[in-house]
User: Fold these one by one.
Assistant:
Number 1:
Amino acid sequence: MFKHLSQGYFIFCCGMCFLVTLLPWWPTYEILTIPKYALLFGPRWWLLIAVIGLFFFWRYLSKAQLWFSSLLILLSLNFLDFQLPSPGSYFSTSTSDKISVLSANIGGGGSKRELDYIGFTRKPDIILLQEARNIALSTLFIDYDFKECISGLCIFSKYPFKRVKVLSRKLFEGWGTFAIFYQIETQFGQVSLANVHFETPRSVLMGLIYRFFDFTLANTIESNRQFEAELVSLWSKNKPYTLIVGDFNMPEDENTYQRNFTHLNNAIGIKGIGFNATKHTVWHGVRIDHILYSDDFKLKAVDVVEVINGDHQPVFATFSVGNTY
């Protein structure tokens, strides 16, 4: 009995590890939207617990299966978004010019004192906020001369900037702004920057919690998220010195992210160590806030700042930049 049970359990673990490892390449079939959201945004630790459970059956597994179980643990850690920095990230050449960027969604918390503390201790050159409604620009980050807020998307900069374009969800009969594009004049030249806040699948996830499966709603949200990502991706193509920063509401292993943003580097994905969830719930965390950058920048350091008493944590990155464009 235990022999048959162990073989079935082993096959189950192999199948689930294979399924989640392929998440970045899942097709965009409508029937897969809700399962995709459940796997991406739900607790991910269940897979590691399931794989560790294999070792309770070690007497009934072959040596090959035991060795393969070690690979399954690695795959489950990868699904958990456990990160080791890319070896190449430590061999970038240094230059004299640097630029630092901090991104924070403050919709779920983040007092003026906390935000000022981050600005004071980290001293970023550019601060980008999402869901920053009802804040007084004159009292926040007073050391920054250049600042503005539009529909909860804010920029505070030590460098002068020009707003190039604003993208609103009115494009698909929604509400709110999901991207603002800037040209920033730095001491080493012009930087193209986008502050983004893509649509959230929260309503679909709440439906899952209450066992209400609305595929029509899920696919409408999925279509909107894809449209937003595609527009921002098109803007960023073939642009030198480009940054896309903000709350993407999508993890790096989502197929929508993979189709639209892999031409840029993900700061935490390149140099992050350990678990770097930027959005927290009671049971788990997920990394959905990103700082993306073009190859013209050389990443010096990146960190998830665990300061704000909200459901998101800021991301802070420092880059070195060549002296010529």
Number 2:
Amino acid sequence: MIRFEYIEFLYALLLLPVFMGLHLFVKYWRKNAIQKLGEAHLISKLMPKISSNRPLVKLVIWMLAYVCLVIAIANPQIGSKIEKAKRKGIDLIIALDVSNSMLAQDIKPSRLLASKQAISKLIDKLKGDRIGIIVFAGHAYTQLPITTDYAAAKMFLNTITPDMLPVQGTAIGEAVNLAVKSFGESKHNKAIVVITDGENHEGDALKNVEAAVKEGIKVYTIGMGLAEGAPIPIMKNGKLTGYKKDKSGSIITTKLNVVMLEKIAAIGEGKYIGATNTQVGVNKIYEELDKLEESEFESKTFSDYEDRFQYFLALAVLLLIFEFIIVDRKSKWADKIKLFD
């Protein structure tokens, strides 16, 4: 298995198109400057040693060296030792509502951000359990297949935004159905935690929950929102620009659908937890999940990783040396081996 110790440094590779663009700009500028001196065929006779291809060759070599240097800084590592370990735990899937109503700020900092923070805390509590993440609005999608990689779970959690799903709504039933399929043929005890405000729910959620229970899956719900509700903010570049309005121009207030979420939890043989401004309810949910009987399963993990940055660093140095010895002007030795024009 290959991983990067400092994966954030790979964003520096996005500068490659910028370097190419600067090269093309300089080439265009030089061409125009030379044209002002006279006709091209006469200028070429006056400057016989000028190479048209070498600057591009030097740029390509320099960019390859840059790529190798960035990869070296990110420090690629290879898992060199695989350990098989027996783990005990349950299979858990979080179904998170990412519809626009989850942007309401009656739960601070917002329903969605508070939910993500709560899920992150729940992940920290897990020991040996497998977790998956499903996001839903008008439709449901798998954000993270079920795994024991808690670091990956947190990484995928951080990327969740309402913009990732184009169709609005609250398809709780579809999310539950997708979660049931995501468990696969697993023999472990299973649970689904639905985190939503429950507003504008679509489809027959209760029937899908009944079907999940028949498969031996318990369904828990966490209600995000307060009784008085809140307007749905419109954000642009991280700043509040207004609130969503209906056709008559009145500001839309989104409210928590407690009745619906309590029914889902009751039918799902789970429990309903209502969030407040200080607690989302993750501790109570964890206590409930902890009561489920844990199953033992085998897990493969890489216990030792070896650094491989030195190979890319050495290659970067060699490329830079090669780029340095290539001059922009034509030379006798280069003409003999015919590498450049």
Number 3:
Amino acid sequence: MTIPQAHLNYILQLGDNALILGHRLSEWCGHGPVLEQDIAMTNIALDLVGQARSLLQYAAQLEGKGRTEDDLAYLRDVWDFKNVLLVEQPNGDFAYTIARQFLFDVFNYFLHEQLQQSKDETLAAIAAKSLKEITYHLRWSSEWMIRLGDGTEESHEKIQTALNDTWMYTGELFNMNETDQLMLEEGIGVNLTHLENPYRQKVAAILNMATLQVPPKGWMQSGGKEGKHSEHLGFILAEMQFLQRAYPGAKW
């Protein structure tokens, strides 16, 4: 893999994470448990889609083939997406959505904190701007983990179950593929293995306040960054890309 290709792939990994999680959260619009949280999830979804747009615009520029961020979002197939498996998991009930959001938010916070130091000035600027939003996302999801975990017997059971079922996707967050390794060597990317300890410590601290148990270590799912996805991503893209594929080049 060449350095320019790795650079493009790295930006796509980041952009796809934001795009797919943003779309997932947008599915809650109008269906939240209470109006305030319906609006909160919609706003977080908008933040993520905004971050995805900045990253995919930059990816299109690096690619140099005349494509736009819309082309990258709406005209790529499942195997071309490089997001981690965690962000494409179904919403399930509110507890599953919170568990997924929290586990990704903690990672995303530490990742963007480090990306501010990237030698890629454009990426560093995007990271600095995004970190302000991600800090809020992490506070929101952490508060809900505590509220559900230390709430009623039913809410505690539901969030613990969701956490247990989602935990298997956290290992992939710290896997260094060829793209990650090359970008680290170029001073553009982050050493993901160095993020794991602070990640586990932060997660454990919040779970302790929530009276929740850290799930036991076990088999970890991976492959998303290599284009090997769960069946869920296909359904996301079928919905997200339908209009553009049915009416190519359509404009509002």
Number 4:
Amino acid sequence: MLRAGVDLGGTKIQVAILDPDGNVVGQCRIPTPQDAGPPGVLTAIVTAVRSAMLDAQAETSDLMGVGLGAPGQIDHAAGTVSHAGNLPDWLGTVAVTSVLRDALGVPIELANDVQVGIMAESKLGAGRPYSSLLGIFCGTGVGGGVVLNDTLWLGRGAAGEIGHMVVVPNGEKCPCGRRGCLEAYAGRSAMEIEARRRVKHGHKTDLFHIMQHKGRDRLASGVWAKALAQQDKMAKQLIHRAEWAVGIAAASAVNLLDVEAVIIGGGLGCRLGPPFVDRIRESMMPHLILPERPPQVLVAALGDLGGATGAALLVEHTVSPPGDLATVTDPDE
């Protein structure tokens, strides 16, 4: 039997189909609908799962279940997602599990999107050598997760929200409505708001020209990467500001938890890769209480498929080490 994993993000829906040995045998990637609210997003998820099954040359009846990693607050018992501010018009509580189960006819497992990505990195990716790690995924927003003694720490259900750790008291406004959060400096949505504000005040940048050339309507990770390659001054300033903020937050978390490794992922982290991670490490070092014994700071190894792969692991089944889970599609989101 096959398992499907869905990584639901603010700009993309990524699906991976795993066989019993953990190999990715089918996948689908589509934009997250921006103008149809939660019902439109749920319909798109169903469409993407079915398309991925076609890519796997299999029928939906071959699925043993679907795992979904979603942003926001997850109520596992109720099967709902609440306050997913990076999803279109998703500020309330939305029933997810029952809708998808009725449409696909299989069990649905629901969890936080970054937590499932970090679970995949812990079991199958860059985190495999370590029993404790901190994951920080920079995409539309900034999410995180903590693995302690090889177990994902959930707290009371909302552990790992490093994106809302305050790095600048009374600082920039975050999409969550508070001020000074890490996400206000290192989430692509907030970074785009700041870039537009600076352009409005007369600053120059090629970011939006690159966005239009790529046929995008938002500053995706690939747009930032292209602007950096062209030495765009504003892009460099905002990316360096993001690296500085992630370094501060990571150092504070490491001082508290003393984990062995920090894994940097998400669309932005995977797209910008080792240079981005190296500068985060440099930013983190001055703030560590034990700089002589720093954690390893690594790029997420599973790339753009990490979230979907981790979501598939939610479906109860023993997974062998994957044959080709490190295959990375363009991590542009």
